[in-house]
């Protein structure tokens, strides 16, 4: 009998709710993927490189043109310079990048601070490498960081702090002052930061994304992870990237080369061509804000209490005026009886904290959102 390295881990809530949606023919607003088409221009470039025999291993670091464009993007948007040769690496999705960063840093008994509600990848990955998760709950209901609690939780064993900004599932974003707080705290410790910034271009109401790339004084302590899947509606391509100071990247690549080594070649060339036009991502926030506003307007006709959404393509709502069920049971009932699948917030907490909140994904066609709203109006 195999001894499990993750004895408390079962199938993720995203797979569970998506399977439930399929079984009940429900609209899937649970899992975070778009149901609209990818830009045909990007597909054309992918087809071109596939048929022109760009089908062998890509360089371990990633296709050079793509890394150069990422370097230029970060210089232009965040005034932060990353050398495309030594400080940028293309990965097989953002999840692989996050996994690799943790594998690079964490030794047995190292402590890792995670802010909850948190994406469910972080904790089990830390535990796989013998680390200990130290959770800090964002202050409910505004989901802000208590920096005094953060200072208290940091110890000599703290190796890493994981931050997701914009935050999934809360939809909140960090301010410039928040980043200054992190900069000061990190500079006084030996800890590193893993900044999961996969939704960097999905912020709303003219609020600017504050990237940890801006914190030049602690650049040698920061890994930044991004996602082309979130950027260009191609989650199934599984293409991401990581940026880090030269010495950090050297260690990252030691783990990366024995994990996936390289990432799908024609996709990288296609993305490099597509990214030459910055307009393809600079106005992504407007595209998703229209969907957010459309969905909010529809939900306002129900008894859901809508929580603020400053970024990501997720919207959360409190259902306390509709039911006294716990959030898992309510989400299950919503899927089975009303044919709309969502994610219960308790799944994002180690101790399954339940504030009667569920998460909707609004990265869907307007017709899909209209159908979902029609069903939710019957609650």
How would you describe the overall organization of this protein?
There is one protein chain. By secondary structure, the protein is of the alpha/beta class. It folds into two domains: 13-31 and 283-376, Aspartate Aminotransferase, domain 1 (Alpha-Beta Complex), CATH 3.90.1150.10; 56-279, Type I PLP-dependent aspartate aminotransferase-like (Major domain) (Aspartate Aminotransferase, domain 2, 3-Layer(aba) Sandwich), CATH 3.40.640. It has helices spanning 13-23, 40-51, 64-78, 94-105, 122-128, 147-153, 176-187, 228-232, 246-256, 265-275, 279-282, 284-299, 327-338, 366-376; strands at 27-28, 88-91, 111-116, 132-137, 158-164, 192-196, 222-227, 240-244, 305-306, 314-318, 340-341, 343-344, 357-361. Helix 7 (176-187) links the parallel strand 5 (158-164) and strand 6.
Any descriptors?
Aspartate Aminotransferase, domain 1; 39% helix; kynurenine-oxoglutarate transaminase activity; 379 residues; globular; pyridoxal phosphate binding; Methionine aminotransferase; alpha/beta; four-stranded antiparallel sheet; 15% strand; aminotransferase; Aspartate Aminotransferase, domain 2
């Amino acid at each position: 009998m195999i001894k499990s390295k993750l004895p408390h881990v079962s199938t993720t809530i995203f797979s569970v709710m998506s399977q439930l949606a399929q079984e009940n023919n429900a609209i899937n607003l649970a899992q975070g993927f778009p149901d609209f088409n990818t830009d045909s221009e990007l597909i054309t470039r992918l087809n071109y490189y596939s048929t022109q025999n760009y089908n062998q291993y890509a360089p371990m670091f990633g296709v050079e043109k793509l890394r150069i464009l990422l370097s230029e993007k970060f210089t232009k948007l965040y005034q932060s310079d990353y050398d495309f040769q030594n400080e940028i690496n293309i990965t097989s999705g953002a999840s692989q990048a996050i996994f690799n960063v943790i594998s690079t840093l964490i030794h047995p008994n190292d402590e890792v601070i995670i802010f909850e509600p948190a994406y469910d990848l972080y904790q089990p990955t830390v535990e796989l490498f013998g680390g200990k998760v130290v959770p800090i709950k964002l202050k409910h209901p505004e989901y802000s960081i208590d920096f005094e609690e953060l200072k208290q939780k940091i110890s000599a064993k703290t190796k890493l702090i994981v931050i997701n900004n914009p935050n999934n599932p809360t939809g909140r974003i960090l301010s410039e002052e928040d980043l200054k707080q992190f900069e000061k705290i990190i500079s006084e410790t030996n800890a590193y930061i893993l900044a999961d910034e996969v939704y960097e271009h999905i912020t709303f109401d003219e609020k600017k994304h504050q990237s940890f790339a801006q914190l030049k004084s602690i650049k040698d302590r920061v890994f930044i992870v991004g996602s082309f899947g979130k950027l260009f509606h191609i989650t199934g391509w599984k293409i991401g990237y990581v940026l880090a100071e030269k010495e950090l990247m050297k260690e990252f690549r030691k783990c990366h080369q024995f994990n996936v080594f390289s990432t799908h070649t024609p996709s990288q060339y296609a993305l490099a061509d597509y990214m030459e036009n910055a307009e393809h991502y600079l106005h992504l926030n407007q595209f998703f804000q229209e969907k957010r506003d459309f969905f909010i307007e529809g939900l306002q006709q129900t008894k859901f209490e809508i929580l603020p959404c400053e970024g990501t393509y997720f919207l959360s709502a409190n259902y306390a005026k509709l039911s006294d069920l716990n959030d898992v049971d309510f989400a299950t009932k919503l899927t089975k009886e009303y044919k709309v699948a969502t994610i219960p917030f308790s799944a994002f907490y180690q101790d399954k904290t339940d504030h009667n909140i569920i998460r909707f994904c609004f990265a869907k066609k307007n017709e899909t959102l209209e159908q979902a709203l029609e069903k939710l109006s019957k609650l």
